[in-house]
Design brief:
By secondary structure, the protein is α/β, with parallel strands linked by helices. About 35% of the residues lie in helices and about 25% in strands. Helix 3 runs parallel beside helix 7 (about 160-170).
Length: about 260
């Protein structure tokens, strides 16, 4: 059995009187893909925000590789090996693919300063040593994307923009990758293609752990080693896809099916 990488214990987040997370327990091992499903408002994205320091927790703890990261700011958590994507693309469309990747690489600098340097063309000149590694990473996602390294992101298709966002998260070689609904805005065919791309990355980075939030059950079934189901900020159940998809409580809460 691989080592535990992320451990969230009794994790709680409150927004006024709303308990967005209510004593959540999640464990993720190195090399594992954990699929997270649940109804809208069940706490899935709040869980990501709590793990990455974007919201303040009201209780509980999060450890990464045995180190407590609860209470650290997002930049410090990222430096310890957690990277993420968001439901809505957060790319700088006027900048090139390479420039966007370098924003993921340079967490040691203030993003406003980095953006100014990029726009003036100065940071790119000092980053020539990263060009080949950027092209290598992009090649896992598309045969043509490496050739667009210095094209503006605004010229890319939606799936290629998603690929760039995932590559920006991967550029620092994190230990844990959090993907928040990567299929949003894409066709089923594009979604299947992106999942195949991610499997190529996982094949090379065998110790990389991934937590994937998705509403597309076909995606969850195809790529997840294990699934966790959220409801009202709590973990309703976890197990294999077959186990959770046949659980009566899951079928009621998420699939809208009452077996009784």
């Amino acid at each position: 059995m691989s080592q535990e990488l992320l451990v969230a214990s009794a994790l709680s987040v409150r927004f006024g009187g709303v308990r967005a997370l209510d004593g959540l327990d999640i464990r993720v091992h190195e090399g594992e893909v954990l699929g997270v499903i649940g109804p809208n408002g069940s706490g899935k994205t709040t869980f990501f925000n709590a793990v990455t320091g974007f919201v303040t927790t009201a209780g509980g703890s999060v450890t990464l590789g045995g180190e407590t990261i609860t209470g650290l700011v997002p930049r410090e958590i990222a430096r310890r090996g957690i990277a993420r994507t968001f439901q809505r693309l957060r790319l700088l469309l006027e900048l090139s693919v390479f420039d966007n990747l370098m924003l993921g690489q340079h967490l040691s600098l203030d993003h406003g300063i980095v953006a100014n340097l990029l726009l003036r063309g100065r940071l790119r000149a000092s980053m020539t040593s990263h060009i080949e590694s950027a092209r290598h990473l992009l090649s896992y996602f598309s045969a043509t994307l490496p050739g667009k390294l210095f094209e503006p992101v605004s010229a890319l298709t939606m799936i290629d923009r998603r690929r760039v966002e995932v590559c920006r998260a991967l550029i620092r070689e994190p230990r844990l990758l959090l993907l928040d609904e990567p299929s949003a805005g894409m066709t089923p065919e594009e979604t299947a293609e992106l999942m195949r791309d991610l499997q190529k990355v996982k094949a090379e980075r065998s110790r990389l752990a991934v937590i994937l939030i998705e509403h597309d059950m076909d995606v969850i079934e195809s790529v997840s080693d294990r699934c966790a189901v959220f409801d009202y900020g709590r973990k309703l159940c976890e197990g294999s896809y077959a186990e959770v998809s046949s659980d009566p409580a899951v079928r009621r809460a998420y699939l809208g099916v009452d077996d009784e």
